[in-house]
Amino acid sequence: xxxxxxxxxxxxxxxxxxxxxxxxxxxxxxxxxxxxxxxxxxxxxxxxxxxxxxxxxxxxxxxxxxxxxxxxxxxxxxxxxxxxxxxxxxxxxxxxxxxxxxxxxxxxxxxxxxxxxxxxxxxxxxxxxx
Length: 130
Fold this sequence. Notes:
By secondary structure, this protein is α+β, with helices and mostly antiparallel strands. The protein has one domain (4-129): CATH 3.30.1330.40. The protein has two helices and eight strands; from the N terminus they run E-E-E-E-E-H-E-H-E-E.
């Protein structure tokens, strides 16, 4: 029987709705909710017009949650990238690539959406296995 463990850290933004930062299962899977460019130090969206800086903040938030769950980037097996503008793909990809070795990169989907929470430019979620 699979059980769930809720992962919480104050090093990443608190949920703003009926969801958790991440859920780990006894099967050692960690499902991390989509993260946006919310800086926990000031509790605000940062760099509203800079997709590079927003992506860096998103990755920092994801990393904080992975760490709280006992995982690292090498444990990530799947990500989904949501972009407000697909023209930002190359820019986001260049930041994203810094976190994964090419021979161990996770599977990924990337889609353009009409709007993201708090009007951010990028949101990323992930699944990890430890």
